[in-house]
Amino acid sequence: MSALLRYESVYKAYGPNLVLQNINLDIPEHSVTCLIGASGCGKSTLLRCTNLLEEIQHGSIYLRETDLAASHKDADALRAKIGMVFQSYNLFPHMNVIKNITLAPVRVRGERRSDAEDRARDLLQRFGLLDKALEFPDRLSGGQQQRIAIIRALAMQPEVLLLDEVTSALDPEMVGEVMDIIIELKSLNMTMIMATHQMGFASQIADNVVFLDRGAVLEQGHPSSFFGNPQHERTRQFLERVTMAI
Ligand SMILES: Nc1ncnc2c1ncn2[C@@H]1O[C@H](COP(=O)(O)OP(=O)(O)OP(=O)(O)O)[C@@H](O)[C@H]1O
Ligand SMILES: [Mg+2]
Questions:
Q1: Which of 34, 39, 47 to mutate to test the pocket of ligand 1 (most atoms within 8 A of CB)?
Q2: How far is CA 29 from CA 146, 196, 211, in A?
Q3: Which of 44, 123, 147, 157 is the most exposed place for a label (fewest CB within 10 A)?
Q4: What are phi and psi of 234, to 5 degrees?
Q5: pLDDT digits (tens, 9 = 90+) for 12-64
């Protein structure tokens, strides 16, 4: 099966600090990939490079046949195909929910406002938030805001969704509702790459778990083999540490 996203020998440095080293990775269409690894290992950086928020120094990231690194002049058009949601939801505080969701489709994709609003309402309905359409972000719970942030990314009809620790800033009782939306997106065949510290969720949802160690992919595999039988000592140590922390 051909990959939707392909990383080939990707290197990224901040000054002298090499943060991604020789990343080679295939992301098949309709798959869920979970990025795990210790704090500072490069998960967010890999996602930010994929979303063209950062430039890589060497190598290529392909979205189908398009080399992202060579296409910075079309960054807006490409970014529209690569949705990203962050730990802090970053909704625009002065806009209501519908405005938040329709801004980019209207401004970046040039959609008619009425079409964008229709789709926003469809998405809100599907994810049980239609009654919040006219609310402002500060009147919503953290979990609701994060679900709106995910819907806002989906409104651009991206080909892949990048999720960077989208449940980490939430109170525990709100984590489940955001996970449920991700589970539903998987059932709708959305291709997703998700950085997470939640191993239980990764083992439940991932088709492939990728362990980053000091900027390199040390090991990857289906959750059953990855968690059941990790191959590297450093992977085992990491898993032991996070399991003990729970
Ligand atoms: N804008 C930046 N300028 C300089 N260094 C950076 C920048 N962003 C990240 N780094 C460095 O890159 C490395 C990887 O950081 P990154 O945020 O990708 O890690 P992470 O795996 O997402 O960690 P966490 O689990 O804590 O979110 C770290 O050493 C970090 O200090
Ligand atoms: Mg991070």
A1: 39
A2: 24, 20, 20
A3: 157
A4: -65, -35
A5: 999 999 999 999 999 999 999 999 999 999 999 999 999 999 999 999 999 99
